[in-house]
Amino acid sequence: MKITKVRTRVLQWNGKTVPPQANFCTNASDALYERGDAMGSFRFHEWLVCEIETDDGLVGIGNAALAPQLAKQAIDLYLAPLVIGEDPFDYAYLWEKMYRRTLAWGRKGVGMTAISAVDIALWDLMGKATGKPVFKLLGGRTKERIPVYASKLYSDRIEVMQAEAQSYVDQGFSMMKMRFGWGPKDGPAGMRENIKRVEALREVIGYDCDLMLECYMGWSLEYAKRMIPRLAPYDPRWLEEPVIADDMHGYAELNAMGIPISGGEHEYTLFGFRQLLDLGAVSVIQYDTNRVGGITAAQKINALAEAYQVPVVPHAGQMHNYHLTMANVNCPISEFFPVHDVEIGNELFYYVFRGDPEPENGFIDLADDKPGLGLEIAEDSLGDFTVIE
Ligand SMILES: O=C(O)[C@H](O)[C@H](O)[C@@H](O)CO
Ligand SMILES: [Mg+2]
Q: Which residues touch 356 (CB under 8 Å, ≥6 apart)?
């Protein structure tokens, strides 16, 4: 089997977008003095779809969400020529070729995001060619079903957050993640606002339900050190990305303080995760398959993390993450974004693709007989998107 064509499209969302409320989620831009659209760096309303065709008529589908127009250029100009004419089953070599030929500029960020999209499409192709779901090629079924945590609870008025948390309990979720709205700029009053919300959620969900806490890199190391003892009594399952992704030593200090620290959704490749693990910087790894280097890189990180006995819970829902979770004992649970109107853009993949499983009572399942990732592009309902070909 030979690859004949690589097609990339960026889908730009023009449909209805819900404007986020003030203080809905801290982020790395909070440290800047400028006012204005502090959330700009963190809203992504476009998605890259990468389709790889073969000489026997199969099409593998990959995707990526970080800076999709740049990732498209990287694929069109640099990666497509490297894979056309090749056999998708040589995926490990193709990964290495894409990595080594772009390494001068592509090791982390957009370059690796582009490789991820191609790699995911190769795995989808291999599944389709063998008639097997991708998880069966990665190790097979390790769970009857995948437990998923509801991931939304952006910071809001307390009653609104409590009602949202209650709705997840009512739907059968036993784990959920909330976002903090206040950080170092907001002083002790902001600290109190953060704590009040954790306390209010615990009132609703009790302590038999796992609660995860998300900072999205919006805190400083000093602020995180002050917050951890205040948060510990509420028994969070983890505190996520408290500081910027490059401050690995900061992560390591915080991870020794009593609340498990999670991170890695902005880290790349086996080498990045080796550093995090060597430093004891995280207690939970959260690579995102469509950034980290695709399924090929993710599976290597899974093996490494297993040796350190650090669990992996990939960032985001999405099929590529679910297949990896299904195939690895050391991936205990998955993230799930409850479908809702488009806010920051996490939700867009529900509009671009069909095939994502619906949770039932806090679990999702993958079919044993659906080849590839089990996704198709929602071609007939892309009306709310501008397509850049
Ligand atoms: O962990 C997450 O789900 C991410 O950090 C979100 O994608 C991000 O958008 C913050 O809510
Ligand atoms: Mg996160």
A: 317, 318, 319, 349, 350, 375
